[in-house]
Every structure is written in structure tokens, then in C-alpha cells.
Amino acid sequence: MCANRRVSQYRRSRPERAVLPDEAGRIADDIRTMRIRGAGLIASSAVKALQIAAQNCSETSAEAFVRHLSDAARILLRTRPTAVSLPNGIRYVMHRVNQAKPQAKGAAELKLVASKAADDFIELTRTAVEKIGSIGARRIRDGDIVLTHCNSKAVISVMATAWRQGRKFEVYATETRPRFQGRLTAHALARVGIPVTLILDDAVRYFMQSVDTVLVGADAITANGALVNKVGTSMVALAAHEVGVKVFVAAESYKFSPETMIGELVEIEERDTSEIISGQALKRLGRVKVRNPSFDVTPPDFIDLIITERGIIPPLGAMLILQEVFGVLTPEELREYQTYSINEP
Ligand code: RUB
Questions:
Q1: Does the predicted model carry a pTM greater than 0.85?
Q2: What is the pLDDT of residue 2?
Q3: Is 159 in the pocket of ligand 1 (CB under 6 A)?
Q4: What's the 275 CA to ligand 1 centre distance in angstroms?
Q5: Among 71, 69, 62, which residue's Cα sits nearest to residue 106?
Q6: Residue spans of the chain under pLDDT 70
Q7: 188 CB less than 6 Å from ligand 1?
Q8: How, if at all, do strands 295-298 and 311-313 pair?
Q9: What is the pLDDT, as a whole number, of residue 227?
Q10: Alpha helices in the chain (DSSP H)
Q11: Cis peptide before 81 (omega within 30 of 0)
């Protein structure tokens, strides 16, 4: 689609988003429509959009700048609800801006703070995935069969690193209906040279007897060590649990959900049913309801280890990561930059 058409469509369909410059608005749209997807990339892209909003802000006073940036943040937070990396990325930037605000002489100074914080967060996402790759690679042994679900950069980093280190193993990649992210995974692994077999989601239990390890990514990790990831992950973990196959999760520390420390639940995104069945085909079925939850929750009992860039932890260690990473946030910052408690306009 040509960029100009996308700009005008964006403006027409979302006039309330006038606060985001076009480039940032397109990023927001791309996250919402899943042209940008995967929790890590969602976070770094949203932070990039926030940086663009900061750089283009024409306010001159520190107060007005922070108000403007908060408005932009709220729009970005509404793009997708489940990946907790998105509010965590926004909080990372807003925390630095809020800290600098009392001493700042005006917007220009805070612009620099916001821009530097955004660069730092984006760099953090890059190095975290790299570190998870080298920490996690040690868990893959020669001859292993590893099964994965959906498409996770962190998981691919682990597998690609293990392969480059000379480990020989095979991967089963589920196709991941309805959006087929498993095809992306299979393609990425095949490019590295890793033998990969694409399987039906429904065939997971059929193959599980021969699997050594399940390795999946994360959209969110809760304070009690539960995993929120692509719908179907909990069935994969259940099938693994049944036959004693270990389940590893690759998750950067900004995927841990600080809200869950105060008892909040992670919202599970429910996407349009047209992803599953066309309107016409549905009509032919008669009075049939369709549901399309995009994520599900795997309890900590079905998870053996979580591989983070800070090291490997058991699920019950989630609280330690949360305290270490998010201990600096004020309760206001926690409340203000949530994805799902914000009322739709
Ligand atoms: C993607 C998904 C991925 C996690 C982790 O869902 O569930 O497993 O986001 O990915 P969707 P990453 O396609 O709906 O965004 O490790 O790349 O952050």
C-alpha cells in the first residue's frame, strides 16, 4: 500500500490520533493489524513511535510536553492488550521523563531525555534477545528434538545460537492457526540450516513422545510464574507434562508483568473471528458463534525454566525479576501506563 494512502486512511479512521505524527501513527496501525507482531518487536516499535512523537512535539513547557507524550503513550498502549512488553517499554521511557521533569527548564531538555531513553530501551531489547540466545543455547543438546509453537525471536535466537555452536538437533514447529506464525519460524530456522518439520497444531500430542524439550516465547510472565503466550501454548505444555518433557520459556525481563504483583490479571486479546472463518462461510453454518482468543495461560506447574537475559530462573523466581526490574516504578506509573485498564474513547 502506498505510504500516502496509508497516512490518509490512518487520519480518516482515527482522528483522535492526531497527536501521533504520521510515521508514529503508521507504527501504531501496524501493531494493531499485526504487520508488526511478536511481543519484543511490538515493544521496541511502540517505543520508537513514542520517540518520534517526542521529537515532533511542538510544546515548549515541560508540563505540556509530558502531557503530550502521555497522550501519545496512551494511544500506543491501546494497539494490542496482551504483550506486557508494550506497557513496560512505555514505562521505561516515561519513568525517565518523569524523573527528569522537576529539574527540566523546558520541553527541549525532556525531548532529549525521552529520545535517549527510547534508544536505550531499543538497544536493551536487542541485547536481551542476544543474551537469551547464548544463555539458552546451553540447554539444547546434541541429538535433541525441540518443539516450538508460534514465532518468537527469543526462541529463534536460542536455537540459532545452539546451531552455530555446533549442536545438531531438529525442530518441530507448529503451524499456529489462525495466523500461521509457525511458517515464519520454520522459514527462519531453515535459513540457518536447522532441520525443521512443520506440523499441525493438532498433531502436538502425536509427536510429543519423541520430543526432548519444548521451547516457547512469552507475551507476559505473571508474578506467580505463569506464562501468557500464543493460544495453544498451554495445550502444548499439557501434552509435554503428560509424558515428562521439559518446557522452557525464553522471555526477556520486560515481558514480566508488574501489574500482576498487585493482583491484576493479564488481559487476553480476542481478535476478529474473520481470522478463523469468513463471514460468508459462517453464514452458511447457520446460528454458530465463533471465538478467537489470541493467547492463553500456562500455569507455572507446567513450566520447568524461564530463560531471561539475567539468567535462568524457575517460574517461582518471577517475583525476584519483577522486584529487580520494576521496583523503581511508582504505583502511579504502574496504573497510568497499562494496556487494558484504559477506557476506550
Ligand atoms: C506472538 C507470540 C510469541 C511471543 C514472543 O504472538 O505469541 O510467542 O510474542 O515473541 P502474535 P518474541 O503473533 O500474536 O504477536 O520472542 O518475538 O517477543
A1: yes
A2: 41
A3: no
A4: 17
A5: 62
A6: 1-18, 340-345
A7: no
A8: unpaired
A9: 98
A10: 3-13, 22-32, 39-55, 62-77, 85-100, 107-137, 153-164, 181-192, 204-208, 233-242, 279-285, 318-326, 331-336
A11: no
